[in-house]
Amino acid sequence: MTGLYRETRDVLRKYGVRLRRSLGQNYLVDDGKRQRILGYGNLGPDDHVLEIGAGIGTLTLPMAELAGHVTAIESDPFIAGILADRIKGDNVDIIVGDALKVDFPAFNKVVSNLPYQISSPVTFRLLRHEFELGVLMYQKEFAARMVAEPGTRDYSRLSVMLHFLAEVQIVDYLKPGCFFPRPRVDSAVVTVRPTGFSLPALFEDVCRALFQHRKKKTSKSLRESFHEIKADLDFSEVLDVLPSEILEKRVFQLKPEEILEITERMEELSASS
Ligand SMILES: C[S@@+](CC[C@H](N)C(=O)[O-])C[C@H]1O[C@@H](n2cnc3c(N)ncnc32)[C@H](O)[C@@H]1O
């Protein structure tokens, strides 16, 4: 039994906590992995770190020793109370609330063992803010989709959007035994460095529409999901302005740059009509 496992068990017993899987309450209990995650964050006194899903402070407490400031968001008020009890210094703010709804403070790094049920919306919410580095833990399959290349099984809307929005790298994997209680899935640690690229307004709609039929030809997929794209456009006009080599490709084989081209052509058409 590692020191962190014993410490976690003791805290949970002391406060009489019953962890809830529905809230993603699987707490990190592997000392070595915690050290590695903190190491990827490379924290120093100039850093203001945001943490989403702080739990009982497994990452928060050591981060408070390393960074200038930590803002910890936790939605479960009872768990947030334990976290507040365990914090010694005065450089940690706790926000009790849903990380999809509360305002984020200005931060330059985000280090979190995320509640996996909000992986996608919280990642896109984070990327609407300016920051330098994210060290984020996800379900392994989700992380694989984040970095997937065109033509592969995991290539998805998420891969395409992130291709432009951030440099993403999988830097570590964690087995279920690294957590208490054990989740049913493996996990991955991902570093995220935002590029600052701003996507055209229709890009997300176009990606969503296309990937509803990822194995179909682009022309067919666009036709079937054209209603998903919120623009006043005529489908036949769109077909006329898109290169045939793009229209003939299966959606999952389209490069992110080709999806950007589809979007830009649509926006030009919309602006000229
Ligand atoms: C996977 S645990 C991580 C806990 C701790 N950081 C660790 O590494 O052991 C995720 C935490 O997020 C909290 N949580 C779940 N949904 C949330 C949400 N929408 N906003 C903020 N916190 C949430 C859960 O209560 C839980 O404490």
What does this structure look like?
There is one protein chain. The chain has 273 residues and is α/β, with parallel strands linked by helices. It has two domains: 192 residues, Vaccinia Virus protein VP39 (Rossmann fold, 3-Layer(aba) Sandwich), CATH 3.40.50; 70 residues, Helicase, Ruva Protein, domain 3 (Orthogonal Bundle), CATH 1.10.8.100. It contains twelve helices and nine strands. It has a seven-stranded mixed beta sheet with strand order 4-3-2-5-6-9-7. The chain has a two-stranded antiparallel ribbon with strand order 1-8. Helix 8 crosses helix 9. Bound molecules: S-adenosylmethionine.
What would a concise description of this structure say?
By secondary structure, this protein is an alpha/beta fold. The chain contains twelve helices and nine strands. It folds into two domains: 3-194, Vaccinia Virus protein VP39 (Rossmann fold, 3-Layer(aba) Sandwich), CATH 3.40.50.150; 203-272, Helicase, Ruva Protein, domain 3.
Number of helices: 12
Structural class: alpha/beta
Oligomeric composition of the shown chains = single chain
Strand order of the largest sheet: 4-3-2-5-6-9-7
Shape: elongated
- For the record, the CATH class of the largest domain is Alpha Beta
Report the span from N to C terminus. 67 Å
Q: Helical amount among residues, as a percent range?
A: 40-55%
The ligands found in this model are: S-adenosylmethionine
Cα Rg: 21 Å
Question: Could you name the CATH homologous superfamily of the largest domain?
Answer: Vaccinia Virus protein VP39
- How many strands, what sense, and barrel or not for the largest sheet? 7 strands, mixed
Number of domains: 2
Tell me, rounded to a whole number, the average pLDDT.
96
The CATH topology label of the largest domain is Rossmann fold
Number of strand elements: 9
Instruction: State the low-pLDDT regions, or none.
Output: none
**SSE order:** HEHEHEHEEHEHHEEEHHHHH
- Measured by DSSP, the beta-strand proportion falls in 15-25%
Any idea what the CATH architecture of the largest domain is? 3-Layer(aba) Sandwich
Enzyme class: transferase
Domain Ribosomal RNA adenine methylase transferase N-terminal: 33-196
Organism: Methanothermobacter marburgensis (strain ATCC BAA-927 / DSM 2133 / JCM 14651 / NBRC 100331 / OCM 82 / Marburg)
InterPro entries: KsgA/Erm, rRNA_Ade_diMease-like_C, rRNA_Ade_Mease_Trfase_CS, rRNA_Ade_methylase_Trfase_N, rRNA_adenine_dimethylase, SAM-dependent_MTases_sf
